[in-house]
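Sample 3 of the quickstart, ligand iron/sulfur cluster:
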Amino acid sequence: MMAAGQQPAHPAPKIGFVSLGCPKALVDSERILTQLKVEGYQVVGGYREADLVVVNTCGFIEAAQQESLQAIGEALAENGKVIVTGCLGKRAALIREHHPEVLAITGPHDYEAVMQAVHAQLPPPARNPYLDLIPESGIKLTPRHYAYLKISEGCNHHCSFCIIPKLRGRLASRPVGEVLGEAERLVRDGVRELLVVAQDTSAYGVDMGYTGSEWRGKQYRTQLTDLCSALGELGVWVRLHYVYPYPHVSEVIPLMAAGKLLAYLDIPLQHASPRILKAMRRPAAGEKALQRIHEWRRICPDLTIRSTFIVGFPGETEQDFAELLAFIREAQLDRVGCFVYSPVQGAEANRLQDWVPAELAEERRRIFMHTQAEISAARLRRFVGRELEVLVDSVTQEGAVARSFADAPEIDGVVRVQHSRPLRPGQVIRARITGSDQHDLAAVT
Ligand code: SF4
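Result:
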């Protein structure tokens, strides 16, 4: 029975959400989901039960574009009311050509436009402030104990194989105070690991002239080293992604050696031949990557380095490829991904000459991965017999799946822990490493 003065409850409009793409797109999805929840919408898992579906797309490479177009098609077929956002949203004509019936298209990190499009279709329900269960830090798509912290949008570089600057615009850093405020809220909300992401993390603050602000009674610049030393005060794991080997990156290595940041760097190097790096127009291509890596490991011997490489880039000769193999043998990187070059519509590299035949490029990828597999396995063996701090991601009947400082979620390996006492996700424990292979470690506690 309804109490006097109470309004009849209107069911909250239901929104379906599809999130594609990289961790940066995931952060966009989290922001939109947070806003939807804050405004009282209900986020549902199935297309059929939703009143409307938002698709956050990826437009990075051809395969991702196809996947996005397919996801839009599926949502239209199953539900009929679809709003498109994200990187592919910048290519509205392409989307309309395939799917003229989509209701609205917005670009990446345009949260307001997405919300306006949602409002136009489904006005927000009246809110009851006492029933809002939204956590202060927002809704996260990642497990509760880790979160991506996006410090800037866009990129000032012009890598010839990439159209992200065209899609996402020039570098726009978030002021250091704002980033630290968000990090604090996430930690208060139970996050144990912060993954710092940007298109170019090393360039953080360049666009703002590094202007800073006060946080916890101390002045910090909007700059990578300052941000890292402040994040190091939060008492949680802090992991850096998408860092280029510029000289100032050396300033964060002592923070790793001191245990303030995880001894982990994700540096997308893409190649080692100076000729190919020049053709790729890579940032920090002139920097001596090998020299820097040796210098960093002198300061922090346990530093784990992850990188990605492209083989079969137009013009890549046997000599270039040999230089790349020599580089990975010498650099002894820990975690490595390798992709065969694939053209992206609108990228400058499409105009380059001397394309590498597909079978040869694939053969190079195979040789590269075979060489790296031995290096990765040897790098992991050094942990056997040691005790490491690990963060538990999940617990099953077979044991716990955890990660050490050397494992970023989703992209690196795991530590499989046999345990005698109960464990729960999000717990940080010490475990003794008993075995290793090319990707993963085994441990007991
Ligand atoms: S650094 Fe290069 S690859 Fe990365 S987003 Fe910028 S242009 Fe693209």
